[in-house]
Write a structure and sequence with these properties.
Elements lengths: L84 H30 L9 E2 L18 E9 L5 E5 L7 E6 L5 E6 L7 E6 L12 E4 L4 E9 L6 H8 L3 E3 L20 H13 L4 H5 L2 H5 L14 H18 L7 E4 L2 E4 L11 H11 L8 E6 L13 E6 L5 E12 L5 E2 L9 E3 L13 E6 L11 E3 L6 E9 L1 H4 L9 E3 L4
Parallel strand pairs: 6-7, 17-18
Antiparallel strand pairs: 1-2, 2-8, 3-6, 3-9, 4-5, 4-8, 10-11, 11-12, 12-19, 13-17, 13-20, 14-15, 14-16, 14-19
Helix pairs in contact: 1-3, 1-6, 1-7
Length: 506
Amino acid sequence: MTAKAITLLLACALTAPALAQTEHTPLFGKHKAKAVAQPAVQPVAPLAAPPAPAPVVAEPAPVAAEIPAPPPAEVAAVPAGPIGIEQLRAAYAFALPVYEMMRTRYLQVSKAESAGAPGVNHLYARTVLADAKTRDVTTPNNDTLYSSAWLDLAGGPVILDMAALPKRYHSAALMSLFTDNVAIVGTRTGGKGGRYLIAGPGWNGTAPANTTVLRSPTNDAWLLVRVLVDGPTDLAAATGLIRGFTLEVPADHAAPVATKAVPVSVPDAATLIAVVDEALARSPLAHTVRTRPELAALGITSDAIDPASVRPATMALWTKSLPALRAEIKGGLGKAGNEVDGWSYPGANIGHYGESDDADRARVALGGLGALPQTEAIYLTATKDKTGAPLSGAKAYTVHLPGQLPVGAFWSLTMYQADAAGRLFFVDTPSKRFAVGDRTPELRAERDGGYDIFVQPAAPSGERVVNWLPSPKGPFRLIFRAYLPKAGFLDGSFKLPPVEATEVIP
């Protein structure tokens, strides 16, 4: 679909032993499991399963990250006969990630420009942790500070400077228009800092001395920096560190070109086509649609056509089908993997999807935009308990996290609810606690060194409150994050215990 994303800059050392699953007798909670009847599961028409992705091969830390130019492709004939739902489904899965990138870009760029600041090619550090009011990016975390820059590389490269942070988790991820992480530097690459020239597909210059080149296959790209906050008292220190990431725009960089199409939360057919086509036209991506003629037949093209020129019958088909297509995509990371004991384990392609995995790319773009590849972070999603019943604020649950989790940096368990559009955000509860993690103050451990996390609406009494994760009314989902996962997670030998419905902890 797009130019192939490079592999990450440093391979993860797969050295941690697999952890055995053992029966857990709670020490701290002293609660008992509640029998819950399993409801009938209603079938949902899924997206067509994508071909299995090619295995990802990690390379020893390269000096530069480069995206090879795509080979010339022959123009295939547009399929004869009327356009069918499968063609439309494929086109939507292709288009939605591009749309979500441009929608998020528009929100953040407009906010900066309305304040009189540069909208693109400038890093903006968020100096508070994300909370329930954070709605510009779906599925935020409550573990790291973010610094974000939307790049327009058509006018030339920009230069990222980052200080050495050898003792604190951090990463700077460069994502293409198609949501692929094409380069990541930070803790995994040694935490040594450095100077990085970020260039688009058309740049043919020479990098300055002592500068590493990172290439994006698209002119529009997203640079997202994460710096770990080690508990509430560490926020000031983390703020100073994330402000140390700076972006320099060379004097000869051409002025950025503003976009014209305005994305909205849930687009109609004309808006979807206008935003996506303009985005495709901003990069030399003719090969993308030349090898996918069914896209052009449905109005998705790099020629930035006027949606009004698309055949009325085609637009009518889009309009009729969009609600169902969007419903199929909803589910985010929880639908982009294999389910074991109620937890969805993402495939190896998350974060760098390859040439054909449009379905998972679209699911994650809607419900987890900016997700990192699994060698940088593992995201496990639970929407069901041990019996298969959907998670709901009407019940209480316990999540047992065993000791010695195969995690190299940090872990957290976060509460989310989906909005009407299918995007995930924190729940605004009186406690203002959105996650529990290995840095949560005074978190109480069990005999095995692990933790029982109590998921329920009301706070438990006494000391048990430190292990409490508030739940909202109605359905919710849990996401477990493991940053710099070790062998047990990466090779599949370690699995989290299922979420258990329990009596309310008083």
